[in-house]
């Protein structure tokens, strides 16, 4: 029996399966691993993922309708165009329940979310909406933030070491104790309407 027939899964590995365009409703996955699976435009409706890992998967344009995530890792995967604000996040959140390593997360939305300690390392996050969110103490190392939006965003203690192409207004975002590379930090002066020579 597979995902389509059963509703609860423990310590199971799914490899190379294709669920693109399907709707998965009220499924629970605990300590499961997804390797090379295709979830393109899949609708996850009220699903629950606990201690799971997605590796080399395609989740682009997936819809996370009131699904729950706890200690979930995305590794070397495509997660393009996902609206993460539709997830049923726990309250309160003390540390981010999702982590991204070497992923493509461009054109996604984290608008208004409180995800302190979010880990998004060595990713391509172009055109991502981080406005009005709390990403304090996040790990954004080695990530490309071209065209991404930051406004009224809490970035206290966030680590942007080796991150590139970010456009962050120092007046409309909280950057207290955030970490930037010395040369990339020049980008923060862009909002000052000054000429660097």
Distinctive features:
PA_immunity-related, elongated, 4-stranded parallel beta sheet, 2 domains, Pentapeptide repeat-containing protein, 5peptide_repeat, 15 strands, Pectate Lyase C-like, mainly beta, 197 residues, 6-stranded parallel beta sheet
Question: What do you see in this structure?
Answer:
With 197 residues, this protein is mainly β. The protein contains no helices and 15 strands. The protein folds into 2 domains: 70 residues, Pectate Lyase C-like (3 Solenoid), CATH 2.160.20; 97 residues, Pectate Lyase C-like, CATH 2.160.20.80.
Separation, N- and C-terminal Cα atoms: 66 Å
CATH superfamily of the largest domain: E3 ubiquitin-protein ligase SopA
Strand content: 15-25%
**Total strand segments:** 15
CATH domain class of the largest domain:
Mainly Beta
Number of domains: 2
**Helix/strand/pairing class, anyone?**
mainly beta
The CATH architecture category of the largest domain equals 3 Solenoid
Largest sheet: 6 strands, parallel
CATH topology of the largest domain: Pectate Lyase C-like
Report the C-alpha radius of gyration, rounded.
Answer: 18 Å
User: Helix and strand succession?
Assistant: EEEEEEEEEEEEEEE
Question: How are the strands of the biggest sheet laid out side by side?
Answer: 2-5-8-11-12-13
* Tally of separate helices: 0
| Chain-averaged pLDDT | 95
User: Any low-confidence stretches, pLDDT <50, length ≥5?
Assistant: none
| Helix content range | under 10%
C-alpha geometry? elongated
Organism: Pseudoalteromonas luteoviolacea S4060-1
InterPro entries: 5peptide_repeat (IPR001646), PA_immunity-related (IPR052949)
Protein name: Pentapeptide repeat-containing protein
Pfam family, one: Pentapeptide
């Amino acid at each position: 029996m597979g995902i389509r027939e059963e509703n609860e899964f423990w310590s199971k590995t799914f490899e190379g399966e294709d669920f693109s365009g399907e709707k998965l409703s009220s499924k629970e996955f605990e300590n499961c691993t997804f390797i090379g699976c295709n979830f393109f435009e899949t609708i996850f409706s009220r699903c629950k993922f606990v201690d799971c890992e997605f590796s080399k998967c395609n989740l682009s344009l997936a819809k996370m309708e009131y699904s729950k995530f706890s200690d979930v890792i995305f590794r070397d995967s495509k997660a393009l165009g996902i609206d993460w604000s539709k997830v049923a996040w726990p309250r309160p959140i003390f540390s981010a329940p999702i982590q991204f390593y070497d992923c493509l997360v461009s054109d996604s939305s984290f608008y208004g979310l409180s995800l302190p300690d979010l880990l998004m390392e060595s990713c391509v996050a172009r055109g991502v909406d981080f406005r009005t969110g709390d990403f304090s103490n996040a790990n954004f190392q080695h990530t490309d933030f071209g065209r991404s939006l930051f406004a009224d965003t809490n970035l206290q203690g966030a680590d942007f070491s080796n991150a590139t192409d970010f456009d962050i207004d120092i007046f409309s975002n909280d950057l207290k104790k955030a970490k930037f590379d010395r040369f990339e930090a020049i980008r923060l002066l862009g909002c000052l309407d000054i000429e660097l020579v």
